[in-house]
């Protein structure tokens, strides 16, 4: 009984002290009311922890400035609150004490939204240019060289839009602010949006790599060994896609615990989110490196002029930048699963994830962007170059072929069928008796279609 009376007396002393120093004397009455309302909103467990910490500190009960800036009081109060209060009571207590002490309110929503909008704009523009480069008007009708890689990047864009829009929605709900300032219902909505956002993200990452791998097939598809390597990496990406989407969907049982468990009010069984995030991010980095490294030996064997070399280097620099972003995202995942301030700590994860996805789309579209630009400024973008070793072979524009005497005799220089795809790369040389580089197939037949394009068939 005496202890209870002591706590109540200290509480009223605390109220008067906060009110007396918070504002000038002329508005004392108004701010006394505000202080009373704030302290009355503080849970009983939080008030007890705060008063106990002050009572054993060197600060006087009337010296609020000392109490607010004393690290021991802060540490002891937080430890007591975490041990004595529920999660919701802990958040309410922290919000009240921060408000009474006049602590600054952090808000990082502005830059985050601008970055998302900028990234979405560039990735959408790159996609539109890519599709436009595959369309042309000939003989009074639209002709296209669209293929499966374009279908896959279209699927990716179907994921990029909801991911980007949800990032803006998350900011409006309170992401990028301290969790103790966010209404409880908003925290639940943030985690629910984040849950579905994560599933979309884990689908988009392998899909954009598969699109790039399919583009490789259009360029280097004449090489059977290279085709097999591409198929293997595609299979690995599909395996990653299926595995981690399923792991993410069933990260908690029941599933709704993924966005309800934060309060500690529901019985849940969940994966270790940190381990799950690290595994997904680390394997994604490995797949990035494998995907970007596949065409390097073929590119090394080709003779490219300076302009093409610049474009190839630029494209791969963007690709490796994506890998660097993936590694940076891996670093911020360290505190992802064990965060006590999820609406603030999740900001960096979401930020790097969105950048990674937007830049990946731009990278996958860069070859087609160059192809479209070449139509309008060919002198800047450069022309095709002969392949090293076939001295007699020469190159031509789309739909053209030229012959020459290489060391195998007469050969026909042919652009990949169905696309003027990457004029970064030299035209493929199909020689009688060798469709594949290992010459395992029979002699190909050279045909010319209605538009004058030359291609080889068995």
Automatic annotation (TrEMBL):
Biased segments, Low complexity type: 391-401
Keywords per UniProt: Disulfide bond, Glycoprotein, GPI-anchor, Heme, Iron, Lipoprotein, Membrane, Metal-binding, Secreted, Signal, Transmembrane, Transmembrane helix
One GO CC term on file: extracellular region
Annotated signal peptide: 1-27
SMART domains, per database record: CFEM
Cellular compartment(s): Membrane; Secreted
Transmembrane parts of this sequence: 145-170, 200-217, 229-250, 277-298, 310-330, 350-373
Composition bias, Basic and acidic residues: 435-450
Protein name per the record: Satratoxin biosynthesis SC1 cluster protein 4
